[in-house]
Amino acid sequence: MTLTDIFMLSITGMIGSAWLFSVVAGDYYAGPASILTWIIAGVFFIFMVFGFAELGGIFPFSGSLARYNHYTHGIFSNYLLAWAYFLGAVTTVSVEAIAIVTYASSYISGLVGANGLLTPLGVLIAAGLILLFTIIQLVGINVFGWFNRFITAWKILIPLITIILLISLYFHPSNFVSLTGGFAPYGTAAIFAGMIPSGIVFAYEGFRQGLEYAGEAKNPQRDVPLGTILAIVVVIIMYVLLQVAFTGGINWSAAGITPGNWTGLYNAWESHPFYSELVASGVPLLAIWAIILLIDAAISPAGTLAVYTGSSARNIFGMSRVGYIPEFLSKVHKKFRTPWIAILITFVLAIAFLLPIPSWYYVVSLSSLLTVYNYLTVGITNHALKNLAPNLKRPYKAPVWFITFPLGFVAAAMLVYWSGYSLINTTVIAVVAGLPLVLFGPYRNKLNLPLKEVSIFSILLWLFLAFIVAGNVYSWGPLANFPVYWALLSLLQIASIAYLYLKSHHRSVKATWWLIIFNILSGVISYYGSLGISPIIPYPYDYVVFVVTSLVVYFIGVKTAYLTNDLKDVIEKGLPEE
Q1: What number is the average pLDDT over the span 350-374?
Q2: Which of 4, 313, 326, 388 is the right S-S partner for 346, CB 3.0 to 4.6 Å?
Q3: Which of these, 9, 408, 26, 4, lies nearest to 239 by C-alpha position?
Q4: What percent of the chain has pLDDT over 90?
Q5: To 5 degrees, how large is the angle CA 114–CA 117–CA 123?
């Protein structure tokens, strides 16, 4: 793959269903100030991109995001991050398939029920879409690279034309400052609080897709970082212009909504924002273009679906290559040279996520958080590498790394915080539930843990976790109270790590404490912060508290890093053959 392919992969990953939905959700949460939400989110991702670009140059492997932290913190810390990322990536495959079918329901009946969920027919069509792109991935990256170029060209062209048409033919500057509440009707806090639930963060997350295909690039140490950075800069500009065009193009009277009623606008247009706006404008050319957008509502998400089908499989490939899960899962097809078993597993799991779900926005929020959780690795891993391997070859070097690396971590941490307690709780549960799985892989022998003992430990952990969570959900006695519930969930994490260290005395277990501490503190602060269920800490002081907490965790993470055997091999022998 060339620089152009890496650039287009990242573009394709970012421009999916999000731009078709997130503009109206952005206005719902922040009004016209959602423009700032896009800009701030983009800046946050730039901080993370610099670190990811440097890591991509150092370790140009397929499935790289499942492996970075392994070189500085060993098995457990990296596995838990990789597990969360994998769940986020697989969920994205389902999200994009759901988006295509949901938009199609405007001209094909029977795909979506009255409750907003896919009908059995809708699930069947979505499953067929996932199957199609699974076959494309199985055939091989050469076919996919050609296909992706066409999809990317289309995905860039359509939003650009939409921007030009709306701004030039139907644009009302008064929508930004003259309506009730003005530019920021819900205050400055809403600018940050809407990042995750609006889908804005989800819209940017595809920047990392070029990194997933690093192993197939012709010149990975140059093309991967450069292609990724160029892609995110282009998309930031595009998304800001799309939000400006949408907000300025609202015809309140045609929509039947009182001017400035952003909640009413969301309720009316949430299923197909741009399509509804173009039709409501009354301009014939825009009405014609609305039909093109319905076609794009199938093509744009399809491109993202295709990318994530491959990247999810390469995440399994990456975890298998470092020994977290059985080695046979990383087998490559003899003819097509693709990780066929991993691709098939991704297909099965993606289909499972097509079961009835609350809404596109909820699934996007959860998917975003699971993915951002993995981004916590970028700053800590890079900083640790500076200490442990200062002479390691770095084709790309992040500018002022002593600032951008900590800021990258804080940016990821704040995105986690703005997800809210409910989603943070779900993510922590998913991470804890996934912990025992690594003990059934090849690393169990390196930890000197018998299979029988691992089985008992895993069963007990899952039983206790199920009891604690069920007790909180169904309000069983004291478990209904957050302090008791979170204390027990925290104690389960602490006890599990302590037990594994006492049994194995493995350095990688100690190197996981930073992540456990982050899990515990993020839950406490999000529950009692301004966005929480019991908002004791007011805005913006809760933000300050979480930033300081994140920096403390960051330096704990850097301090607990160590020279792993794999990093020592890279220093002494160079990168392993893939």
Answers
A1: 81
A2: 313
A3: 26
A4: 55
A5: 125
